[in-house]
Amino acid sequence: MYKVIVTDPISENGLNALTSNQEFQVDQQTGLDPAVLVEVIKDYDALIVRSQTQVTREIIQAADRMKVIARAGVGVDNIDIEAATEKGIIVINAPAGNTIAATEHTMAMMLSLARNIPQAYGSLTSGKWERKLFKGVELYQKTLGVVGMGRIGTEVAKRAKGFQMNILGYDPFLTEDRAKKLGIIKASLDEIAEQADFITVHTPLTAETRGLINADYFAKTKKGVRIINCARGGIIEEQALVDAVNSGQVAGAAIDVFEHEPPENAGLTRNPRIIVTPHLGASTTEAQEKVAESVSEEIVGIFTSGSVQHAINLPHISASVQQKIRPYLTLSEQMAEFLMQVFKKAPNKININYYGELFLEDTGLLTRQMIKALLSYYLDSSINIVNVMQVLKAHSLSYSVQKNAAHKGFTNFIELEIVNGDDKATIACTYLTGFGGRIVSINGYRLDMEPEKYLLYIDHMDVPGMIGNVGSILGKGSINIGSMYVGRQTIGGKAVMVLTVDKPVPDGLRDELLSIEDLNDVQFVEIDIPNDEN
Ligand SMILES: NC(=O)C1=CN([C@@H]2O[C@H](COP(=O)(O)OP(=O)(O)OC[C@H]3O[C@@H](n4cnc5c(N)ncnc54)[C@H](O)[C@@H]3O)[C@@H](O)[C@H]2O)C=CC1
Ligand SMILES: O=C(O)CCC(=O)C(=O)O
CA within 20 to 30 Å of 308's CA: 375, 385, 460, 474, which one? Predict the structure, then answer.
């Protein structure tokens, strides 16, 4: 039974994938004091939050069972991603579920700002009739600058075109071609400052975007520009905005998100020219259902089949690539486990080569899987595919990945080499459709070996009687041989033998095997075989 805690208000319907699954227990405990959350979190395997809960390093460090932190929404700035990655916790979000809600809120804010609707409503409901005071401006033929042309920025631009606005888009990833297709103009931030009547920001809050719109920027904008922020507090410097509004440089602003939530700057929240909403961009029934559904389904997938779609701290791998590399996930890990046990030294360099059709695929997950298996042999067992690259870096270990379209005799071929000073060992595998995974080379010896739980690796000379001698010692020790794979360099030269055996080989028997003439080394190897492969 996996235990999931939900600490912010989230759509009940959207949680259905979890609540209707017998393998999951879902506890909704919203508004917990951080000190209480630090206590209770240690019992949970997954945490679901919106933007309220601050998932701090302290909370993450206490979360000893936690495998997934899910943000039912886009921005993950309330989660300490670095701490989660160090602890090997996958952080996921629901990037697309609230795009329309945030887009429509932006449009609502822009129209409200243009027509002073909140101020007029406040005036009328307090008994006044002040028509002159609330004369507005039209959107028609005005210029809108969209900073951040991702999901929401793009949808805002499309809708603003419906109002016949001229759109300038700024985004490091916006190409001329995409701008043209959208019917907008690709512009710089300064061009937006010079030309825009309305500016709306739709970037994430990052080190680069914090304070992107500041006093210097307002000095460059058109006098009377209107500003909208339904993205993240902090992208626009709050005090600089208040000053620019008070000086008349900025005619007004519409703000949904704040540097601190709830906001602390009264100059912003009680300013008659600044309209504010309490972070409502994603607050629609539909969006909340979609984001809750997205994270719930993904959590079920992570725990039941290991599939991850929207991880923040793992390389993104599309569903079609996942499908292609899936057969190699376990195989590459088993191959790495095998190699470590035969090599018996900690590697200081790891080289991975992908050949054949894998040349074209994103193999990041396979690389992580192999490195994880290698490092786990000597290091902490808490290493997983999320934190493995950090562990590698922390131990100053180097690695290289090369890809080659050459087939090496197989459609796909993965070769792993580990190096310690002058010593090195190599292993390679492939996946044969209809037959399954095969280890096809060890230290340069060709063989065709199916990974099994208990294996005996024997380094020997290719002399008559070797197989019989090994077989009779194992027979005397009641060790049954399942299958045997042999590979040799030349007739009578160096050779290796890998036996699959039914149970672990005791050390005493290993010593007896070592006494066989021309037998150089014996290593008992144990590989993790998932249940469904037995
Ligand atoms: N108010 C609310 O309730 C909601 C707020 N949001 C926020 O809206 C923002 C946008 O969300 P999405 O469009 O879904 O994200 P997205 O990831 O699809 O788009 C963000 C875009 O910003 C661009 N960008 C990054 N750095 C930039 C820079 N320095 N200058 C210009 N562009 C830059 C990126 O290239 C990307 O295209 C996020 O901050 C998100 O957290 C999202 C949903 C609801
Ligand atoms: O969950 C919410 O209401 C906030 C949504 C949001 O800000 C986001 O998804 O980035």
Answer: 375
